[in-house]
Amino acid sequence: MRWFILFMLFLGAIINFADKSIIGLAAIQIKDEFQLSYAQWGLVGSSYYWLYPVTGIFGAAWADRIGAKKVMGFLMLTWAVLQVGVLAITALPLLILYRLLLGAFEGPYSPIAYNHADKWFPPKLRGFANSVVVAGGTVGAMIVAPLLVALITLLGWKMAFATLGAASVVWFCLFQFFTKERPEGEVVLKKKTASKAERLKIKDFLVLLTKPSALFTTLAYFSAYILVVWFSVWLPIYLVESVKMSSAQMGYSVAVIGIVSVLIYVGISMLSDFMFKKSQNWRVSRIYIIAASMVLGAVLLLSLTIFQQPMWVVVAMCLAKGLTYTILPIGPTIMINEWPERGALMTSILTSFGNLAGIVAPVITGWIIGLAGANKIAGYNLSIVFMGGIVLVFGILFALFVKPSSEKNMKPQVNDVDNRKRPDVKYS
Fold it and tell me: Domain Major facilitator superfamily (MFS) profile spans what residues (predicted)?
C-alpha cells in the first residue's frame, strides 16, 4: 500500500507542477494574444503565489485534523474546475484571476503530500520518499514539457490546459477509492498524541519557528524555490530568446534538464538516507551533504553568465537544478522532526514561506530583464546572478546554523509516533 500511495503522490505532484508550469511553455502564445509586456508577464507569474503561502498553511492544518485523503481529493477537483475554466479567459485580468485561484488551491498539496509520505515510510526511507514526491514536480514542470508543447501546438493553449483538468479527475478517483489514510495501528497512536498537539500555544509555536534549525532550513528552502519559480516561469523564454533555441529544441532541453536533475537529487537523497541509517548523525547525513550540494549548484548556475554555449547551458542547468533541489525533499524531513505530531503544519510553514519566492521572483526577474532593454542576454544574466547569489548565501548559512535535535530521533519518546519501532504500526 505504501508504494502505491507514494506512486499516487508522485502522479499528483506531476499534475500540480504541470498545472503551474504549462503557462510558461505557452508564454509566447499568451503574450502575443494579450499583447503583454515583460513586466505584465512577470505579474501573471507572480499572481499564482499571492495566496499560495496562506492557503498552504491552512490547508495543511486542515489535513492534520480531518485527513490527507479528503483534503487532497477536494483540491484535485478544484484544479479540474479551474483548468477547464481557462476556456473562458479573454483578457489579462481574467488570466491573473485564474492564476490566483489555481495557486490558492494548489498551495496545500506539497506539504500534505510530504507529511503523508512521511506517515507511511520509516525514518530511514523518508528522504527517498520525499524525493520521489519532489521528482513528480520536476516531471510535471519539465520532463513532460515536449508533450505539453505538442498539446499546445495541436490544440491551442486553452484546450491544453483543459486536458490537465481531466487528468485531475482521474487522479481523484484512483486516490479516493484505492488508498488508505494511514498505516494500520497509527489511528490509535494518533489519539494518544492529539492532546499534546492541541495544547501547544501559538507563542510556543512561533518560538519554535525562530529556532536556528527551523529558521535556516526555511531560508534555504526559500532560496531554492526562487530557482524553482524561475525554471517554471522563465526558463522556456530564456532558452528561446537568450540561447536562441527553437520551440522544439526548447521543449526537449527542458525535458533533459528535468530528467537529469531528478536522477541527481533522488540519488543524493538516497545517499542522505544511507548516511543517516549508518550514523544517525543529522549534521553529516542531512545538513552537510545538502549544503554542499546547494553551494556547488549555485556556482554552476553562476557559470552561465560566463559560458553561454547551448550545450553548456543545458549541462549546467541539469547539474545546478539537481544539486540545488536536494533541499526540497530533505527540508520537510527536518521540519517534521521539530514537531512530529503536526508534521503537515510544520511542512506547510516551510513550503509556504518558500513559495513567497513565487510572489517576488517573477516580478523581480521581469523588472531586471526590462531594465536591460534590447540586451536581453544581459537581463537574463543579471537574473541568474540574483538567483545564484541567494542560493549560495543561504546554503552556507544552512550548513553553519541548522542543528536538528538528533536525540529526539534516536531515543523513544512517549508521544513520538514517527520515531519509535512500534509493532502495531505496519508500513504495508
Answer: 5-407
What is the C-alpha to C-alpha distance for residues 265 and 322, in angstroms, rounded to an integer?
5
Q: Is 329 exposed, middle or buried (0-12, 13-18, 19+ CB in 10 A)?
A: buried
Question: What grid cell was written down for 76?
Answer: 484535485
Per CATH, which fold does 2-178+211-407 belong to?
A: Growth Hormone; Chain: A; (1.20.1250)
Angle 118-64-427 from CA coordinates, rounded to 5°: 30
254: Cα within 13 Å, side-chain hemisphere: 36
DSSP 283: I
Buried b / exposed e over 55-88, threshold 16 CB at 10 Å, is bbbebbbbbbeeebbebbebbbbebbebbbbbee
- What is the distance between the alpha carbons of residues 293 and 392, in angstroms, rounded to a whole number? 10
161 closest CA partner among 19, 17, 11: 19
Q: To 10 degrees, what angle do helices 68-85 and 52-66 make? A: 140
Give the pLDDT of residue 365. Answer: 77
pTM above 0.85, yes or no: no
Average of per-residue pLDDT across 209-236: 86
C-alpha cell at 187: 489511528
What residue type is 157 in one-letter code?
A: W
DSSP string, 84-130: HHGGG--SHHHHHHHHHHHHHHHTTHHHHHHHHHHHHS-GGGHHHHH
Q: Which amino acid is at 320?
A: A
Angle (CA) 401-132-112 rounded to 5° is 75
pLDDT digits (tens, 9 = 90+) for 136-195: 887 886 677 778 888 898 999 999 999 999 999 999 999 999 988 877 655 444 444 444
d(CA 35, CA 241): 17
**CA–CA distance, 224 with 294 (Å, rounded to integer):** 8
Alpha carbon dihedral 115, 274, 391, 322, in 10-degree steps, equals -90
DSSP 342: G
**Residue corresponding to grid cell 507511511:** 120
Cα–Cα distance for residue pair 156/163, rounded to 1 Å: 11
Largest separation between any pair of C-alpha atoms in the chain: 66
Question: Are 209 and 362 a contacting pair, CB within 8 Å?
Answer: no
Domain ranges of the chain: 2-178+211-407
Over residues 241-258, the pLDDT tens digits come to 888 888 788 888 888 998
∠ CA 199-56-78 to the nearest 5 degrees? Answer: 125
Amino acid at 382: L
